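Per-record layout

source: Sugiyamaella lignohabitans
name: CCR4-NOT core subunit CAF40
length: 442
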Amino acid sequence: MYANVARQQGGAEQGPPGPNYAQLPQHQHPQQQPQQPQQQQQQQQQQQQQLHPQQAQAQAQAQGQAPGPGQPQNHPQSQSQHQQQQQQQQQPQQNPGQPHLMSQGPSQGNLGGGNIGANIGGNGTGLPAGISASALNIINAANSSAGQAGTGLPLPIPTDQGNEERHTSDDDRVFAWILELMHGPNREQALLELGKKREQYDELALILWHSFGVMTCLLQEIISVYPLLSPPQLSSPASNRVCNALALLQCVASHDQTRNLFLNAHIPLFIYPFLNTSSKSRAFEYLRLTSLGVVGALVKNDSPEVISFLLSTEIIPLCLSIMESGTELSKTVAIFIVQKILMDDMGLNYVCQTYERFFAVSVVLSNMVAQLVALPPASSRLLKHVVRCYLRLSDNGRAREALRQILPEPLRDATFSYTLRDDAGTKRCLAQLLVNLSDNYE
């Protein structure tokens, strides 16, 4: 029927995609229809707009007029059925002898589900790492227009924009406080806020070390309290301020990428005057404890470079002094540093090289044992480090011969059995120490 109608009409106008021309014989082609009257043309445009407003608008713009009277009308379909049909057709069909009208404008197959999805990540489900915010906005706008031009929904783009914004916000805060530290009037507040970021911001040590002028500012804070050490005039606010600066130095000392740089600059030497104080006030005790924390951060990773540097300084005599007269917490950190030095072969040989060095260490350890006995309940934390120091000294032949004579008696009997009742590791170390000091041990 369509072929007869086409032969009867003599126009040359193009029509919208309606019938399936593939079913017609190959020698018959539908002829283009003449222009309809304006009233019928408007009615047909209204019907097409009811079926699919966006498609009708695209057709009208590309064609310039409505189809002729001889062409068949589109059968009414629901919008959902029409959407399913368009989703199955990724490329519009084209008549062999006549260009298809929809090829002149954007199609859903090219815009919504194909090219943009391939540009994003191959399947349109994710973004490549490091995509910029401007590119993200462009892609979102393109997907929004694709959802409007076609019948499909906009392409979903899951991103980690929230995490990036939080990380950027942390960066901004850190850099703002660093600028305040170097140039602003609130340096004390900047020290406090940056100290709070030590555990939250992994790159803080790198930023502190590589930011121009930051280490100089921290050293200025440390040097500024030197006149208050002797005679002891350090106030609690001044102690808190310099301890905040020391906390940032500890952050730099504990980082793998800045530790050796920290040592090569000999920055630990600037904190040794704080370890050489003897005042019992809370401000000085807090200052000593924080300074010990910087050295403890250095030795924590068992680096031979750190041990070599510390042995070239006076860290062992300073720690021995604190082990005798400091508070329990300061004693614990100080003996931890000595133990770490002894665990290294270089440190053990250094202590046992002369009688004076060995005697100084052994006397302090013996005094600590006497203090633990005199002040029950004994601190198992301190006792653990004392036993391990003795055990390590027993690995040296000359020191082992001396320890057989001078090892404190409370370590030989059951004096600390109650203290070590829940510490199986320290009990094993103590038993091994006694074995090493026995006459049958070679």
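summary: The radius of gyration is 42 Å. The CA atoms of residues 179 and 185 lie 10 Å apart.
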